């Protein structure tokens, strides 16, 4: 049984008070990182809850992505050493715990313990220059609910199965979370180009191509279908149609 100091658990849940502002507001915007990004800055931006994902930059892209960030969902490999660079001082930094090592990493950051960088597909930051009081941890139930109820991802495999386990992307997790707390959910940047289109950019920034997603641990086809189902049901509004 792994034990964590009591101090750590002050950060370990998205409390009711965290979502008070969401329950009082009508619209939530979720901005993803794909190339289908142009949401602009609406006059009502100050009234909206805006969720951003991973290390998607804001500075230098304001005309396309706006400049407000209420929450940023991330995991260790997508974390930034200086989260204040592309966020505002009141932005909540919400860790998505895909694996136990993710919780271990944030514990070491919060408690300033010796860093253990084993168990990550890319080395996460060893230094956090942001405000520790702004850190939150997403309840793992959202991951379970998104995987099993929205994407129908199997959680059990037969012994010696060669089927590769997959898990939801941070983006589809953000949508599932927003559907619990927002009356209106607008999403931008959620295009899903074909994984066979190897030269298509993955994000609106950087140089990664779709070729890098060929062997990813995500089922992008299932997420694309789920996105279209939610759109057709009127549960979400896409600011740009998915591909």
UniProtKB/TrEMBL annotation:
Keywords: Glycoprotein, Glycosyltransferase, Golgi apparatus, Membrane, Signal-anchor, Transferase, Transmembrane, Transmembrane helix
GO MF annotation, one: sialyltransferase activity
Main location (coarse class): Golgi
Gene Ontology CC terms: Golgi membrane
PANTHER family in the cross-refs: CMP-N-ACETYLNEURAMINATE-BETA-GALACTOSAMIDE- ALPHA-2,3-SIALYLTRANSFERASE 4 ISOFORM 1 (PTHR13713:SF95), SIALYLTRANSFERASE (PTHR13713)
UniProt name for this protein: SIA4C sialyltransferase
Lineage: Eukaryota, Metazoa, Chordata, Craniata, Vertebrata
Glycoprotein among keywords: yes
GO annotation, biological process: glycolipid biosynthetic process
Membrane topology: Single-pass type II membrane protein
Family: Belongs to the glycosyltransferase 29 family.
InterPro entries: Glyco_trans_29, Glycosyltransferase_29, GT29-like_sf
Location of this chain's protein in the cell: Golgi apparatus membrane
Any Pfam family matching the protein: Glyco_transf_29
Organism of provenance: Polypterus senegalus
